[in-house]
Amino acid sequence: MSHTGLTSGLPAWSTDPGELARVSVDRSGVAPDGLPDLVVFAQSVRDVRRTVSYAASRGVPVVPRGAGSGVAGGAVAGAGEIVLDLSGLDRIADLRPDDALAVVEPGVITADLDAAAHPHGLRYAPDPASAAFSTIGGNIATNAGGLRCVKYGVTRDAVLAVDAVLGDGSLVSTGRRTVKGVTGYDLTGLLVGSEGTLGVVVGATLRLSPLPTTTATAAAFFATADDAVAAVTSLQRRGLRPSTAELLDQATLRAIDDAQGTALHTRGEVFLLLQTDGYGAEAELAEAERLLRPSATHLETTTDPETAARLVAVRRAALPAVERYGRVLIEDIAVPRSRIAESITAVGDIARRTGVRIVVFAHAGDGNLHPIVVADSAPPERVDEAVAAIFEHALAVGGTLTGEHGVGTLKRPWLADELGEPVLDLHRRLKSVFDPAGILNPGKAIR
Amino acid sequence: MSHTGLTSGLPAWSTDPGELARVSVDRSGVAPDGLPDLVVFAQSVRDVRRTVSYAASRGVPVVPRGAGSGVAGGAVAGAGEIVLDLSGLDRIADLRPDDALAVVEPGVITADLDAAAHPHGLRYAPDPASAAFSTIGGNIATNAGGLRCVKYGVTRDAVLAVDAVLGDGSLVSTGRRTVKGVTGYDLTGLLVGSEGTLGVVVGATLRLSPLPTTTATAAAFFATADDAVAAVTSLQRRGLRPSTAELLDQATLRAIDDAQGTALHTRGEVFLLLQTDGYGAEAELAEAERLLRPSATHLETTTDPETAARLVAVRRAALPAVERYGRVLIEDIAVPRSRIAESITAVGDIARRTGVRIVVFAHAGDGNLHPIVVADSAPPERVDEAVAAIFEHALAVGGTLTGEHGVGTLKRPWLADELGEPVLDLHRRLKSVFDPAGILNPGKAIR
Fold first, then answer.
1. Residue of chain B nearest A100, judged by CA positions
2. Where does the FAD-binding PCMH-type domain lie (chains A, B) (predicted)?
3. Nearest residue on chain B to A140, judged by CA atoms?
4. What ipTM was predicted for this assembly?
């Protein structure tokens, strides 16, 4: 379709097939159905409003896009759709140390905001693994988590207010600059995690938090997932509040060993990276050591930053190591805390049964598991079978399809199984209030 | 109106004028317009569904009610309305220490849940001042805060899932039993704080958190509000995370002195009660002492529970002491952290200008101020003028009408000033999705 009615006067847009191909995909591996019609590189809120108004009047779907770093297909765009690229809206408009908040545009890179806060003794707490290249807008769209959200909360907990362009092109401001507030419904929280289906976030007021004074780190290995999870549970029940509690299974350790020539997998079946921070960091770690020691097959603790960096590097090496096996699907189930060990075991069973190579990373403190499925390790129907089995397991133990990545396009088939039809229908009616023409990222997040 | 169509077969209801008068008011002092038609004492989810369905079919407003402890008029019911009393739904249905969660009915008293968690080393973190008599359902309706929410979050942060009866009598379940999850929109967060206007909460899954190992306490006095607030800010900027940071102004100290025969007001203009907890409690308090010492006119610190209880008692004595002056209106503005001192001063100025007796309590860590207005200390028009001036001040400094009590009926006149008409209209359209007949607590929270 020709979109001259929109593009005349727009400062930046493209119909170049190479550009369109680039902006039609994210990191999910989902293939779009043809190329989108057009990409608009928004330079202003006005550009966003104009694009959405145009799309609403013509019934053309708009797919908002930040860095394209999503892993669930939330930003995939195909034929007949307009991509609305927000990466050019990348200003930190205000940073107020005394109020511990920042006002940003959606295209700001997450790590850049964090870095901008550091000179003030502050940080932006949510730290998705993609922080170095994902945008705040994308983080808001998916309610991104990260390693330290077990202590400091997910993206929703950091978003105080948003400016959003609704599906009719109108601009609304929700929320406030105060930490607390209950005037009106929580529209801010509703927009967070809505994957661009309720509004296009064009600005956000974000909470910053103090940089911790001290960080202490432990690396432990255990003979079984049960032992490792029991250890984490025992810490939490003793009132410890780790800032990081990451598990890697033995298949992941083998991948890292293959990549690095190390022998981590000989130390145990499961690796636990634990960090504590703040004024109690060392006392907490000492208590953690006492609790982990009896069941750990190997245990190392440190407050030395260099040694800590070496231990943290094991966790960071995990995904690149697994990616050497081929293209990966990063799954993202979350389960009740008491079911974590059983879920790690279940994923291992699914891998064996289907012949698909799957490794597991887990944010153990909050029950969020990332089964990493190597897509080319088995025939496609086997991979589909494995992924379906993982979702079915999550729902069977009272868990959820996605802890922090979003539903996107990939998880829609299981949506009704988790939410139930009546609640899904409520979602649809809610969307129609925000987006009467149904043009905001249709077919994503809900169905 | 006769409601025999509803009451036939209902196990418990009343049209007794005494009962109706009792359930027609809350602690706001708002006088209802006549007596409600009927009160239904729900014994089951079925009773709730039946009452709401009946009301929807007849277009009769339903006012959900817990303990009636609200202070904004959210549970006030008048002629032509049905009161739906949920206090009989008071079971803790499940408490799972390994998952750190509890499943409760809405009528459970907040402090009872907290107490039930203690033997497991857990607690229910939100601690509104009303915890001893308010219900979880009421806490959810207003997104209640409390003293320790500066560190542990407000009610919304503790609610993982709810069961709610919508305005058509249908029952929906939102949320999940996992800490993290982004499947679908955050309907749970939307229902929290909606003051019974979107659905009647009939069940909730709540997050529990570990009881802190250690608590340390400081009581400090300062010559000015500026000094006190600057001290709190300096703590937060040093990365301290106090679990309590309560300010009382000198007018409050005088009220306490009058009631108790003490001489607290001679120690300074402003009192700060500070608590730290967890593994770093003592290290944090030592650092706090170092930071407070230069500007404090009086400073006392302790880790001894009995001494701490004596210091905490000062804060607890505040409201009863002020209530000796007469009936009070408990206001609840929140302002950006950097504007707290100025707001305390502004309230003092308003009191002097209008001749109304007003004292101030503040949750200083999160900028939530409670100006306590003594209703009978001046002519009604003066009191109205003072209250209006407080709200206008809050909005002028980028704050909000209500930090944790809700809008109820009392704050509706200022609602559009804070939210703006377009956002308020969005609220109305959103409500119509959940409550097409407009019968759920109409005229409250939004307008």
1. B337
2. 32-211
3. B182
4. 0.96
